[in-house]
Design brief:
2 domains; 6-stranded mixed beta sheet; 18% strand; 455 residues; alpha/beta; 8-stranded mixed beta sheet; 17 strands; 40% helix; Protein-Tyrosine Phosphatase, Chain A; UDP-N-acetylmuramoyl-L-alanine:D-glutamate ligase
Length: 455
């Protein structure tokens, strides 16, 4: 459907770049986060998005405090491997905005996004409404999926569930990965309130995959209210490690021995449960193919770059840090064994390997709790390198230094104006046998990866 852009001197011109569009959309609404569907629904209906999602599509909607990105990535990989034309929407991105909008595992082009932004902007103006950056960009993603006739839509909720723009689309199957305390200014400061918001993605008579062993009463009440079928980890499905290369998944109908993916088994099991609970035809060959290829940048993401060992993880709250540490502790022992083997064949007298932390967070997160968890872990963290994130909600260097001073010897803290400088400094300070752990925010990972490309 071709939509002409109404005359508006502030809208980007026809030859505007993706960057110009993104900058524009960040400025047209009074606040970056504005919960609610009353403004977004008329625009979505004007574009025909809601109706398109109900026609010949199957929609997975994934909410939760942590693990949404990995879960959606695995669901998408499973459906794609089974031959379905699969749309994947995730947020935020790490390095390139296009990462948020993928079809069959490929990011859409700048031109595709720009065309969708034009149409969303036209509909917004015709409806006489303002939309936030997230609302505008999410509508554009959904429009792209509709116009591409994708058979399966895998949608990651941005914040909460009930009032998130993703929730304008009715889920055919819902996933709640877990529920923790996060985004308290918008969702509430207790798991009952947060659970009620996240379970707002439920619809009548659909299935819910619940990926935690503890369930708030508010979630159970909404399950009952919607007559939803709930499949909960530990009750209706389970998983276990077999060996370094294999894991086992079981539910009431099947037991699989499967290759271990590069992503969390917890999130993988939730994703597999979701696909198995759907009417989609996904056989064992497709499952094995998907699990051997699926990956997601920034989720326990190990790389060798610039002659250094790096581990990137977006952990930025209590659950995320605990999950990072559960994987990092055994990984560190594996790293030491590898270093010992390499050094046994070398005459170099090298210092013992240590961990260097490259760290930054947003100012509205519980920075002290995250630092405390990391410093109390049984890990040889020798130095902390901090730089300010280039984002309005970023914690200042002063804020970061103040928190670290309560947990870390100040002589081991190295502060820089930005993450580009901090990245260069940690490369210079780290020895080749060290492990550099980058964590604290999606923005921390993204800006570090950009800095590494530039370094």
């Amino acid at each position: 459907m071709s939509v002409s852009l109404p005359s508006n001197p502030d809208s980007p011109k026809s030859d505007a770049s993706l960057t110009q569009w993104l900058d524009y959309m960040q400025q047209i609404h009074v606040s970056a986060i504005d919960m609610g569907l009353s403004r977004v629904l008329p625009v979505a209906e004007h574009l025909g998005i809601v109706q398109s999602a109900k026609e010949d599509t199957y929609v997975f909607t994934v909410a939760g405090t942590n693990g949404k990105g990995s879960t959606t990535a695995v669901i998408s990989a499973l459906c794609q491997a089974a031959g379905y034309k699969t749309a994947l929407y995730q947020s935020p991105h790490l390095s390139h905005f296009n990462e948020r909008v993928c079809i069959n595992g490929q990011m859409v082009s700048d031109q595709t996004l720009i065309a969708a932004f034009h149409k969303v902007e036209s509909a917004r103006l015709q409806c006489g409404l303002t939309l936030s950056f997230f609302e505008m960009t999410t509508l554009a993603a959904l429009l792209i999926f509709a116009e591409a006739d994708c058979e399966v839509w895998v949608l990651e909720v941005g914040l909460g569930g009930r009032l998130d723009v993703v929730n304008i689309i009715d889920a055919d199957l819902a996933v709640i990965t877990n529920i923790g305390i996060d985004h308290v200014d918008w969702l509430g400061d207790n798991v009952e309130a947060i659970g009620s918001e996240k379970a707002g993605i439920l619809r009548d008579n659909i299935s819910l995959i619940y990926g935690a062993t503890e369930m708030p009463n508010s979630v159970q009440q909404l399950i009952n209210q919607h007559n939803a079928r709930c499949y909960q980890v530990g009750k209706d499905f389970s998983y276990s490690v077999v060996d370094e290369n294999t894991w086992q998944y079981s539910n009431a109908a099947v037991t699989f021995q499967l290759p271990r993916p590069a992503l969390s088994l917890t999130n993988t099991a939730n994703a597999l449960s979701a696909v198995l609970a759907s009417p989609l035809a996904v056989d064992t060959n497709a499952i094995e193919q998907a699990l051997t290829t699926v990956k997601l940048a920034g989720r326990f993401d190990y790389r060798e770059l610039k002659n250094r060992y790096w581990l990137f993880d977006v952990a930025h709250n209590e659950q995320g840090v605990e999950f990072l540490l559960a994987q990092l502790l055994p990984f560190w022992q594996h790293h030491l064994l590898n270093q010992a083997k390499q050094h046994s064949q070398s005459s170099d007298n090298k210092q013992p390997a240590t961990i260097k932390m490259l760290f930054s967070m947003l100012g509205d997160k519980d920075i002290s709790m995250v630092v405390q968890r990391l410093t109390q872990a049984n890990l040889p963290i020798s130095d902390w390198f901090i730089g300010e994130i280039d984002y309005p909600r970023a914690a200042s260097i002063k804020q970061l230094k103040t928190v670290l001073a309560s947990h870390v010897d100040v002589s081991n803290t190295h502060a820089f104006a930005d993450l580009q400088q901090a990245t260069a400094a940690v490369i210079a300070k780290a020895q080749p046998q060290d492990l550099i752990v980058v964590c604290g925010s999606f923005h921390t990972i993204g800006e570090t990866l950009v800095a590494l490309d530039m370094a």
